[in-house]
Amino acid sequence: MNKVLFSRKVLSLVFSLFLIISLKAQCPERIISLAPSITKNLLLLGLEQKIVGVTSWCDLNKKISIPVVASAVDANLEKIISLQPDLVFATSLNKPETLKALRNMGVTVEYFPYPKSLSQIEDQFLKIATLTSSSAKAKTILKEEKEKREKLSMLIDPKMKVRVFMQIGTNPLWCAIQNTFLDDFITLAGCENITKDLTNGAVSRESVLIRNPDVIIIVMMGNVGEEEVRIWNSYSHLNAVKKNKIFVLDSDKACSPTPIDFTETLKQIILNIYK
Questions:
Q1: DSSP β-bridge partners for residue 246
Q2: DSSP label at residue 25
Q3: Which CATH superfamily is domain 156-274 in?
Q4: Would you say the pTM of this structure is higher than 0.85?
């Protein structure tokens, strides 16, 4: 074979392989999600057919059967590699050594820190969409949710000076503080967060009683949330008790929200406060 012709064929083969790898990176067909929040965003973008691995904490449509490759924090590296993912999404829930091991084995890993604001939730959603060639759909969703929030803002009574305590844990008592998306729920509802001065979320029940909020929002699941409602209602002098403004939110939607979950949670808060 002519050396020039052989060289051209080799170069053509190399270019073809490079193109296949590039396209695979740009349009991943096999995605693994190592966090419930990421999985929810992927499903929202209509990518369920491309998800090949999730965590045991991911909430899936019952009709969808996807292999479990991790718990909340521990991942099964062997199982992940066997699924031959084009892309693995990870968050601060995942152990750094796990992500390092995956990268060392040639797996493409995209890491997302825990978002601290609505803006970061939206930015991460857009990045996921960009990496999965779903940008157009993501932008449409974000536009629609912004319009919904603008309509919700019309329900807020600016004359009411509502002071809110948002509880997100018990034993120890834990609350929403400033510079978190949980605080965004409160401020976007036109209210004041009574624990905005704290540098971490630990707070005593006595401190909350002294601050005397007008509203208490409990972000916990099932019986735990209902038990906290009962405890707070036992303090009859509390403004929140007098005004009957203690309610429970869905912790899954409130604590790991997609852009849609954020708007739905904000809607519940506004309707409960201003009804």
A1: 216
A2: H
A3: Nitrogenase molybdenum iron protein domain (3.40.50.1980)
A4: yes
